[in-house]
Amino acid sequence: MNRRQMNFEESAALLTRYGIVADGRQVYSIAEAEGAAEEMGYPVAVKPVSEKIIHKSDEGTVFLNIHDKSQLKNACLAIEEKIDGFSRETKEGLLVQRMAEQGFELLIGAKRDPGFGPVTMIGIGGIFVELYSDAAMGIGILTRQDVERMLTTTRVGRILGGFRGQRYDRDRIIDLTVNISRLMAENPDICELDLNPVIVYEEGCAIVDARLIRDGNIVKPMAEDIRPWKQQSIDAIFNAESVAVIGASRPGTQGGVILKNCMKIRNLYPIHPKLTKIHGLPCYPSLKDLPQIPEVAVFAVSSEKTVSIFEEFCQLGGKGAIIFSDGFAEMGRNDLEQQLVEISERYKVAFIGPNCMGVIDNFTGLNTNYIPEQRSVPVPQSNCVGVISQSGGIGLELLEMFSADRQNLGKWVSIGNAASAGVPEILAHMGADPKIKIVAIYLEGVADGLKLMQIGREVANKKPVLIIKGGTGGGAEAALSHTASLAGSHEAFKACCEQAGFYLVDELTEDPKILVNVLSILTSQPQTSNNRIAVVSVGGGAGILLADQVTEEGMVLAEFAPGTRSRMKALIEKNLKPEQQSLSETILKNVGNNPIDLFGNCDDDRLLESIRIIDQDPNTDVIVAAIYLQVPLLSEYLPERLVELKEELTKPLIISPRGFSAYVDRCRTYMANKKLHTYTVPMMKPLSIAIEIWKHYGHSFLQ
Description:
This protein is of the alpha/beta class.
């Protein structure tokens, strides 16, 4: 890489073009430093201008509050020794600045992300920038609205808004951040930029240090639109009435499984050079022998054969392809993958893959999953959910989680290497499909981040897009500036999600399960737009844990109305045994508080009636019920009665069956088959995300 730190004079000249004034004067001798200090007036600060020193404070080369020539000379000599002398020719010198008044220190910086282009950051500045890690990112040329949104996610935003009566020039900082984003967008050779610290006052600000790094080898990412022919080709894949499976074979092989899974397609053509019949269907030796030109071809043959047969398919007039075959770029055969792309571009026929599990479309019956049903799960019935996965394995895991939670599915796509159709293209298709109301995505890498953000913003305006992302941990390349150490690609991706309006499930451990539970809640529960939660439990411990999680996730425990409290006390009191009557005051003391403990002697009627009472409470939006179905006084008919009760309720009922016994599983299965979904952990984070989505989009996703 051809990276070079710009000196102060170069940096100041570029910043000035964007209305940004960096304080100070660059000099090359002690005498010049003394002259600059006299002209500015003491006290001054002095620091090195040198490519040899990136973090000046860390090197002990920043000298502050210099009050006279003697102090200045000593500081200059120390810096001269550190950088091996001054040179006007090489621009190795000193920066002399008028000592800035105290104020609030910010960092405003930017870097160039390989997938998203310029990413601008604002956060707490000074020498503790990495320690606090309080920063927000924005992609591209930012608007004032973008910067306002960024500030709402940081402590910096609270401070600039007037924390404890101290006010700062928020508008000036917003203008400065917008100008930095424009500078980065219009100067693609600037790969990193730090203004740290920017000292902000009640009026105005001072830029104490500016560090810009130039790289002449930077390639600017382009946010190209999806070409119409490619979108038409992808749409054809999902509306196929005729499909050829190239590499179809006997049962037990991958080609045989794919063929069997596609049996719902009306015109399905197995292709094999030797076999005459597979799964009762006539088999054809080649594409030319088919009775019609298939709209879609599914490839399950070697990479070399795939390339030649794909070209033949395009020449015959095919519309779209799914390339299950591996042996392409993931195996080092970039040449073969590039041949596929060139053929696709030449004939304007898009493909999904290669090295993918392809498509499950429950509306048309297309299913190119190669896993036998007896080794995995049956494909669910259709609903309004679309899933896109970069990983076939995670995609399969999500399918099995859907099945375990009795969650249905509309469309499912494993994109593999995404050589022709990537996440943006499939997202655009699902965004335009009126049958799909919610889109869920698993991502690992983002090669076309600007396109994803551009398409995603259009889709997220109409329907929720939820994302989980792998590849967020691990080591990072050594950074040349503070900004680079904070604004890694995952941080840029989070900024993309914020600007596009995606819901990012940013949990590294349980994210697939969280995602599935969000989708289940949205598609099985009535809409609510508020977050006042009532927790009722048969067994106090589970209720306490759930109440803790409610507040941890930013929701609130409902404060029951007086009438609700009275009805709950009356319900418990009428079930007290004679020997308990003398203790009734003690027993009833906390009844009506949230969470509600119905005690270990709770029976079906007490549980069901308490849920009815809470459903009528004006201060409650969602009911969460933690139930130990195993306890003796709850009958085996309770699941059936809960299903009936659900039809009466006006509010979401989130049931958490506690435990993992076979009996609990049978109860969960029965209720799910009757469209009353239940949830093992986690459930509170999914509920909080679902409430956000209901509030944002203002309508139900019930199926």
